[in-house]
Amino acid sequence: MKRQIYTDGHEAFRETVRAFLAKEVLPHYEQWEKDGIVSRAAWQAAGRQGLLGLAVPEEHGGGGTADFRYSAVLVEEFTRAGASGLAIGLHNDIIGPYLTSLATEEQKRRWLPGFCDGSLITAIAMTEPGAGSDLQGIRTRAEDQGDHWLLNGSKTFISNGILADLVIVVARTTPEGGAHGLSLLVVERGMPGFARGENLDKIGQKAQDTAELFFDDVRVPKENLLGELNGAFGHLMTNLAQERLNIAVAGITAAEHLLEITTEYVKEREAFGRPLARLQHIRFEIAEMATECAVTRAFLDRCIADHADGALDAVHASMAKWWATELQKRVADRCLQLHGGYGYMTEHRVARAFTDGRIQTIYGGTTEIMKEIIGRSLLG
To answer: What is this structure's pTM?
Structure first.
């Protein structure tokens, strides 16, 4: 089915993204996988190409467009290329809204130009060793010291954790209040007491630096409070729909691309003297995956269009996230199986997609959390 959500302008942008990937990312990606981190030069190249800060106002160096469809194009092309290490989606669509909607004018002047030119790489630190999706379990605390906050605690599984120059930290600023006693504090590279652990060794997304962060009496200036004091819960809830849609777009795109690769493979691969595609079981497998992808794509495109119009709610974003990522997981498993022994070899795209994509049902809110959100909306 022909997609109907993109204009000629979006498709022209798609060609720009593909050219950037071909020149600045794919020639270096194997080395980044070995290094466990991408080059800062790649971020700066993305800034020069206008791929960073798409929704940031032009006066601060951004693209000046709030049309999420451009972000969706970016996610789709990076996913098809298998380039998860350069976490531009995290930077643009998850962290960017906090800076554009919550920052003061002074903060915007300080941070947004670097955010857009690639000289200031960002991260957001919510998860702790003892607290994942449950914000009430956050123990990182910030004490009011008059002209600054004194920040203590640790975070884990932080994407861009090694490279980040600016980290939005979720910290407890009121002992009472549970999830409603939290604030967002911006910690910058070089602040005394701010340290990073080792680059964590993951089963997939090897080029994406992920680390533990430690805060030992970090003096965070009062002017680095982002948004309202004790308002982090509301701020986080406001931006989660876009984060989950971003992950869902990657999920359906990965599933579609794996299906394309596998369809070509079974046409060429022979068993018992004939192509695998001649076997009824194989045809049924491909038919089932193609149908699931087509139905999911229709729903995701509707969600993208709704979000571009400001109409996507948290419940439908949760539906999109859990369904698309679980589909991605199923398709990756089935496609690897259809590749046989070759699918288990890391040199083949399907093998890397299998491990890279496994995190999709976990970060941004697990599948179980998504179902809980949907269930509560229906049943109270």
So the answer is: 0.95
